[in-house]
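Field: sequence (string)
Field: structure_tokens (string)

Example rows 1 and 2, in order.
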Amino acid sequence: MQLRRAGVADAAKLSLIGCATFIESFANDHDGDEVVRYLASDQSPDWYATQLADPAKAAWLVEEAVGCPVGYAMAIPAALPGTDAATDFELKRIYILSKWHGGGWGAKLFAAAEDEARARGAKRLVLSVYVENFPAQKFYAARGFETIGRWVFEGFDSSEDFILAKTL
């Protein structure tokens, strides 16, 4: 297994792992057609290529030794309500396929994003997490995050998220 910085050439890999982990995480409680529409736009290879080409954003990929993607994280200048892109860095996405849970790779992805935020001079690392995603909430609480607000995720059907922040 390896963790490495992702680049534009990795857009298809991030798209595949993004779609797979999103379905794995949310297929049980969101409308299937809405999820498919969301994934076709906000998890497409073109979407990732655009994100990865922006130097203000960063992404990391976890791969098996043979190069198959099993997890990833993406961080961006903060865009959540109640945050400030000048002082906050946002962990936009972090997912690992369930077969690889418990191996420490989520923590390594998180550490890469936290290190990136510090290197960019951010005062806080912020993120949003689905109000029903209790394992993720536990993961973030263990890393010092506190709830600072709520917002409605606008990718598809109405889905409320907590906004969390950690002072760096």
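Row 2 begins here:
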Amino acid sequence: MSEMEPDVRAFLLRIVQTISMAMLWLLVNMTIGIYFDLAFFEGSPTIWNYIFYVWFLVTFALLLMYFRNKWKQTLNKKQ
């Protein structure tokens, strides 16, 4: 395949996985929020708007935990 060193290859793979998860999260939230009009209020917020924003915040927190764990694993392996 390529003559890339294993450490460099693992680092680039981590970067690609991080970007991919972020883009997937953005795509899902964009689809739910914008295409289904849950991110915008028309007059007053509905229960579906509240559910969307709770979903948004919970999944964002989970995404950040995923990033932290993903990058923390590699630091622990090198020590």
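free_text_note (row 2): The two ends are 29 Å apart (CA to CA).
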